[in-house]
Amino acid sequence: MTKLLYITANPFNEERSYGMAVGKAFIDSYKEVHPKDEVTHIDLYSENIPHIDADVFQGWGKLQSGQGFEALSVEEKAKVGRLNELSEQFVEADKYVFVTPLWNLLFPPVMKTYLDSVAVAGKTFKHTEHGTIGLLTDKKALHIQASGGVYSHGPSADKEMGHRYLKVLMGFFGIPSFEGLFVEGHDEMPDKKEEIQADAIARAKDLAETF
Fold first, then answer.
1. Considering the domain boundaries, does residue 87 fall inside one?
2. How would you write the pLDDT of the chain (211 residues) with one tens digit per residue?
């Protein structure tokens, strides 16, 4: 069974968010086209996503030194255990759909926290004598990004770091197929905001058939 992770980083739902509206159109269409696939929604604003902090580093250090999981403190067990759950879930999936707004030229901080939880040596990449190699070579990913301005091309493209970061990281993981779907310009062109959203939703539905 093909497993798809639908990963959203937005405090609002599709009624208030352009990106979430397009994401919902995509995932609804995807489910219709691929009814046997397993789709899991990870709402990063409601999930427990531990930060990599002193507890995590201390816990990892104990495990790497040969101590068992029981040697970890209560806090270390909770955080390290949850991070392991997230990374295992990510590795076991076949497809990823990220939905984010562009905030201050990047995605929301909770997305970075999540990406840190799945960027694990030995799971999503490995170090070799010839350099770092990605391990997810049979996966595919899509990023749906909404922004009030136009950043996918034009004079502001060099300032955009959300989609570019994800593109680099997915490549680092070895994922060979990474696409972007942009919902942008609704603040710069408020008279065209309905047209912008409708066009993005149509593109999302088309993409869902082949993704």
1. no
2. 899 999 999 999 999 999 999 999 999 999 999 999 999 999 999 999 999 999 999 999 999 999 999 998 999 999 999 999 999 999 999 999 999 999 999 999 999 999 999 999 999 999 999 999 999 999 999 999 999 999 999 999 999 999 999 999 999 999 999 999 999 999 999 999 999 999 999 999 999 999 9
Residues 6+ apart with CB under 8 A from 197: 18, 21, 22, 183, 186
Report d(CA 176, CA 178) in Å as an integer: 7
The CATH number covering residue 33 comes to 3.40.50.360
Q: What is the pTM of this model?
A: 0.96
**Distance of alpha carbon 143 from alpha carbon 197, whole angstroms:** 16
Structure tokens at 174: 């070895």
